[in-house]
Every structure is written in C-alpha cells, then in structure tokens.
Amino acid sequence: MSAPAAGAEPPILIAGAGVAGLTLALMLGRAGRPVTVIEKRTRVEEIGAGIQLSPNASRVLLSLGLGQALARAAGEPERLVVRRGIGAGRLTEMKLGRTMRDRFGAPYYVVHRGDLQTILLDAVRSLPQVRLVFGRGVVSADTEGDEAVVSVDAGAGPETHRGSALVGADGLWSRVAHAIGDHSEAEFSGYVAWRGLVPVDKAPPAFHKQETGLWLGPNAHVVHYPLRGGKLVNVVAVISDSNSEPGWSRPGDPALFQRRFRGWSPELKALFEAVGEWQVWSLFDRAPRERWVSGRVGLIGDAAHPLLPFLAQGGACAIEDAAILSARIAATPDDLPAALRAFETIRRPRAAALQNAGRANGRIYHMPEPLALARDFVMRRMGGEGLMNRYAWLYEWTPTA
Ligand SMILES: Cc1cc2nc3c(=O)[nH]c(=O)nc-3n(C[C@H](O)[C@H](O)[C@H](O)COP(=O)(O)OP(=O)(O)OC[C@H]3O[C@@H](n4cnc5c(N)ncnc54)[C@H](O)[C@@H]3O)c2cc1C
User: Fold this and answer.
1) Quick check: 226 and 325 in contact, CB under 8 A?
2) Which of these, 82, 112, 110, lies nearest to 225 by C-alpha position?
3) Active site residues
4) Which of 315, 287, 394, 312 is nearest to 350 (CA)?
5) Cβ neighbours of residue 264 under 8 Å, at least 6 residues apart?
6) Could you tell me if the CB of 15 is within 6 A of ligand 1?
7) Is 12-77+106-183+286-363 a domain of CATH 3.50.50.60?
8) Which band of pLDDT confidence, cut at 50, 70 and 90, is reported for residue 249?
9) Does residue 338 carry a pLDDT above 90?
10) Is 137 touching ligand 1 by the criterion CB < 6 Å?
C-alpha cells in the first residue's frame, strides 16, 4: 500500500508511461505537483519504429526544454513526396524542414520511438516529486471521498495507491476507462500495419534522402522516412485487410507481404526486400467514448480517443492532451474534478476532428482505381502549398487553454 505521509500533498496518479503519461508527468512535476506514474511494463522501451512529431506536438516538447535532446535524436526531413504506388507517378511535394519552422514556428521531427521515450523518461527522472512505479498494472480504480484509489497487480500480490486524482494514460485498452463506467471494447478497424527498419546502406539509393515518402495505392499505402541521422529508414505499410485475424503485434511473413504489393513500384519493393524483420499490428479503433471523465478520474491520449495512423497524429494529440490537462490543473489546483471536466470540454472537438480527418484520409489513401484517378488529379492540382494549407489547422495548434 502506498499512501502519502501525513500532511503531505497527495500525488496525482497517472496510469501508463507512454508519450501521454510521461509528458503529463513532466508538466505536472515541473509545476511542483507530486505525481506517481504506474506502468505495467517493467521497462519502458519501444520496439523499433519511428514517430513523426508535427509542429503542434514539437512546440509543446520544446516548451518543456527538450529542444537540445530532440535536436540530437530527431531528424527534420526536407520534404514530403506523395506518389502513386502503382505507376510510381509523383503526385505532389510538400516542403518540410525550414519551411515548416518558418510557417508554424516549430519543427516537423521524425524520431525513433525508443529515443523519444528515453528523452521523456530522463526528463521525468530528474524531478524528485515524480515517482515511477514500473511493473505494476492497474487492475481497478475507484473514488473514495476526495481520493482516487488504484489497485495494481504487483506480481507478488495486490497493491493499492492513493492520490488526489487518477489520469488513465493507459492506451487503447485502458483499464482506467472501467472506472469511469466505460466497458466498451475497441474494434478491429479493418487495417493492418506492417512496420520495419532498414539500415540505410542496405536500402536502395532512392531512399537515402532526407525525405518522407508517402505512396498511395488500392487498399494500401506506405510511408517511409529516415531515422537516427539517416542511418535507418523507417518503413510503415498500412493495408486494408478486413479478413485479418485481429491480434496485437506479431512477426510478419515477408513473402506474404511481397505478394500483397505485387504490381507496385519496383523501387519500393526493393526497399521492402531490405527489411530484416516485419512487425505486424492489427489496428483497432473505437466509437467515441461517451465520457472521458468521472469525478477525480479522467482519460488522456489513446485511452480517451485512439487515432488511426493516417494523419500521424495519435502521439501528437496525446502530447496536446497533456499540455491542456496540466494547464487546467494549474488553473484550478484545488479542484481537480473541475480541471478534468474543463479538459474534456476543451479537447473533445479537437480529438473528434483529428479522428474524422484520419478516417477520411484512410479512404482517400486506399482508393481503388478508377476513383483514385480523381484523387490523383485533385492532389496534383492542390500542390505542396495547397497540401500544407489543408493541414494548417492541425500544425498551428498552440496550447492556449
Ligand atoms: C503504425 C502506427 C504509426 C503511428 N505513427 C504515428 C506518428 O507518426 N505520429 C503520431 O503522433 N502518432 C503515431 N501513431 C499513434 C501513436 O503511436 C499513439 O497514438 C500514441 O503512442 C498514444 O500514446 P499513449 O501514451 O496515449 O498510449 P500508449 O503509447 O499506448 O501508452 C500506454 C502505456 O500504458 C501502459 N499500460 C497499459 N495498460 C496499463 C495498465 N493497466 N496499468 C498500467 N499501465 C498500463 C502501456 O504499457 C503503455 O506504456 C502511430 C500508431 C501506429 C499504430
């Protein structure tokens, strides 16, 4: 059992040390609030894959003083090039790099997930008021008077933690959601993601550039970008696959994958051949939760609103959530239920807009022929500037709660 010493301010409990939980812990800890982060894994390490951090997210991380660490670990591709997967025609090109910084005042980073976790974790570890409790999975949570009470599975037996509030940053399969009365299940989205890394010296020369590539085709799309100073190429292919067996991460069969992309650009297929090991993720989605908050318990990040990866915004949205929730807690430090309610009111429209835009992109990216010809026409006409204008609402976001 873990309880604060008599007279000590009780901690805010955070379930989950993903990008949402760690960013929130960092913000609250910096503001002087005691925090306990409860994470079910024994070590927080992300398996090999990258994450794009658009200016709306990088702006928040820079404001936390993580600029130097990110500048060392992350890259800034010079452009995004959108192509047809079959026929390989170039559809449009949007400038990133300096152009993003000039227009949105913050970088468009790409970073290895493991490096991002390490940066956040190191920053959190430097704060004495943040306690990290690893290897403890939240089993149930409740409210008793003005306390949030969490039962965790501690291996050797159950353990209880008490705090002034509980924030569920425990991802898509949130257990904390049960404590707000939501027992709904996430559903298989009909999309499967294949993720892999290629050492750059094994990748075809076309993929050695500081460039993000997006390839669109019938029922699939592919994204790639350089990681770790261009030493690695991160490859993600998302396939519409309604017959796929829903499951979590598993190794993928390269032969099956190559068959699925028969007829696609030979250049891209050469990149696929260089992937050492594919990890396959069935992507799950859920209808909007009826509520994210009940009393002293609230949800942020994927726990509140998972995002399909067609906008590359799930992690960014989780970082935005952390910024708004910590600002609301600072605004009403003695009334955490009010802070949580205000957070939900502010964030719901933005999260819904991102979810809807992501789902729409899924349909556009995976359009079959001949509909895709109309899509390609629109994309070519829109051009890079038009594409950037289309997403400006996303990248301009600043934490002004
Ligand atoms: C293929 C793919 C590509 C993506 N690309 C991008 C991208 O480029 N940019 C972007 O912004 N987003 C991207 N996303 C989305 C992004 O990865 C997620 O939205 C983001 O990781 C959500 O962060 P989170 O902290 O809310 O949840 P998670 O990262 O899921 O973290 C939840 C944490 O809670 C822990 N946990 C779970 N249950 C319990 C429990 N009972 N008790 C205690 N701890 C628990 C977990 O172990 C984990 O550490 C992508 C997603 C996919 C699938």
Assistant:
1) no
2) 110
3) 225
4) 394
5) 85, 86, 215, 217
6) yes
7) yes
8) confident
9) yes
10) yes
